[in-house]
Design goal:
485 residues, 13 helices, five-stranded mixed beta barrel, seven-stranded mixed β-sheet, 30% helix, OB fold (Dihydrolipoamide Acetyltransferase, E2P), alpha/beta, disordered N terminus
Amino acid sequence: MGSRAEIIYHSGVGTFVVENFGCRATQADGAAIEQQLRERGLQRAWSSQQAELVVLNTCTVTAAADRDARAAIRRIHRENPHCQIVVTGCYAQRAPQEIAALRGVSQVIGNSHKHLLAEIALGESQAFSTISAGIISEGTVSEGGFVPLAELNRASRPRPQSPEILVSDIFAHTELRAAPVFEGLGLEGERTRPNLKIQDGCDNRCSFCVIPSVRGQSRSLPLAPVVHEINLLVQAGYREVVISGINLGRWGRDFEERRRFEDVVRAILSQTSLEKLRISSIEPMDWSDELIAMIAQSPRIARHAHVPMQSGSDAVLRRMHRKYRPWHYREKIEKIRAAVPTAAIGADVMVGFPGESDAEFEETRRLVEELPLTYLHVFTYSPRPGTPAAGMCGQVPVSIARDRNRVLRELSAKKKLAFARGFIGKALPAITLNTVQAGEEAEFTEALTDNYLQLRVKGHHEPNRWLKIQILAMENGLLRGTRES
């Protein structure tokens, strides 16, 4: 949430840009959309100002995420008024009419139809008719509401005056399709570490969270397609892959023969030659002793654990409807640290949840301070329409929530700095990202260590290479090092 990645492309006839807002799963969805468009002959534009088609893949986890998407729509329409703006993702699924009311929007395509985005946007094999306001009914589409594109050729029909809204019941989706990978397309800087989404949706019902209503029930990519996709990425030359999901640790629980997340990790290690597997966020209750041991024992799994906390107060966690208590969380983090002493351990923490008192916030601050966490993602509570928390008493004033956010961000910065400094004088494996030029020669290369530390390596190094880096110093908050000979 709050993050935005714009995929930049070469200008030309039939050009597009995809802008992704939010989590790794959203970024993986955006990569799939991009691939679908490229397969249909579209080329990447340098920016949204040059593109004929702009796809905004939105987040809705906070009000700020919604505002970011609306601001992007206004900016794009102002800078490029003739482009086709297609809005998809979680915000599109939650509030399609709100988005359609914005000037410049051509189509709103919810998560329910995201897998058909390229076909719908380009008017190919499938199309959905709209009612008078340009809105398809949410829920089951009637027989009269579906029109094959053979009968609605894009070239023969005018662009609708009102944006098309293509949204249906997300809970009707019970399977997860494999996202296309970048086979044969070559490596590019922003894709050194591709995301592969292997799970979507969530069966939890946290009182503050709107995501289950816009992503649907938990759905897992079957084991064989996961292995196949990883092998394709390896063949394309990728050295690290991040597996992601909305509730990743629940992978396999929806299969007729229930599987566990550890099964998919084990299969990737045994059935692929992937050099480094990085695991995205896993809920505390899914960090089993077996999973922790796998990370500790296999050098092919990145030394990196992201474990959402949300709050260190038992009372707040209960109001949030979270399924663990602070002492459970402490136990998991301490087990991870004991098994993997060099691991980066991150957490999501929310401040300003309804009713959060000074004492309850202090419980969170103290737990964060005491635990061996190395970084935080700190969020200020934002009421989401339709969630139980939005109607709770005791909404925390914005000014107080912001102060609490600042306290935790400052604590996070101290922990992150101390963790990074602890590796000065040591050698760490790191994957190279981008080369930064100084004059005519490369001054240094950006890299990311196995344990999630950003650093700069002296000299020019090709991207997507695992190197052993001797850490020499820290300058301006970033580690600097040199390749070991």
